[in-house]
Design brief:
CATH topology: YbaK protein
Helix content: 25-40%
Shape: globular
Low-confidence stretches: none
Order of helices and strands: HEHEEEHEHEEEHEE
Oligomer: single chain
Strand content: 25-35%
Radius of gyration: 15 Å
């Protein structure tokens, strides 16, 4: 894995990616919030438009592991067995908080649905991508992006797989 990014680095890289890619987006400033349901209320959109992003650790063998960012609608859970099956792993679990923050350069509760690390895959559930616009934090708890989904798909090119279980 590459060296750790800071929150400012990740935010700046995100904004640069959006600008260079000609993305249609809006920056939203709000009270600090790391819970998807409360952040969605602050941002004024439905919970299913929130790109809930979690770092998942997939054990491939006793000594090898793979980390991925799983992106699901805010009203859903990550289906860990589904993520595990995509990698033919032995077990999938949530990454430790410090590992997730180091890999993404984002504060826990504000992980972006994209990666600047080529070894950190991004998998997005198709139900999230059914919306015209998605919302997510910029790596900080007090700032979010409203991004056209077509721009997200073009700029991030996530792997699209059914990885959302029921319930938040």
């Amino acid at each position: 894995m590459s060296s750790a990014l800071t929150t400012a680095d990740s935010r700046n890289r995100l904004l640069d990616l959006l600008a260079r890619g000609g993305a249609r987006y809006r920056l939203l400033h709000h009270a600090p919030q790391g819970r998807t349901d409360l952040a969605s209320t602050l941002r004024g959109h439905s919970l299913d438009q929130a790109a809930k992003s979690l770092v998942i650790r997939v054990a491939l063998s006793s000594k090898r592991r793979r980390y991925v960012i799983a992106v699901v609608p805010g009203d859903r859970r990550v289906d860990l067995p589904a993520v595990n099956a995509l990698y033919a792993g032995r077990e999938a679990s949530f990454a430790a908080r410090d590992v997730a923050e180091r890999l993404t350069g984002c504060v826990s509760g504000s992980i972006m649905p994209l990666s600047f690390d080529p070894d950190l895959d991004v998998i997005a559930d198709p139900d999230l991508l059914a919306h015209e616009e998605i919302f997510f934090n910029t790596g900080r708890l007090d700032e979010s992006v409203a991004l056209r989904t077509e721009c997200y798909r073009t700029l991030v090119a996530p792997r699209v797989e059914a990885i959302a279980g029921r319930g938040a």
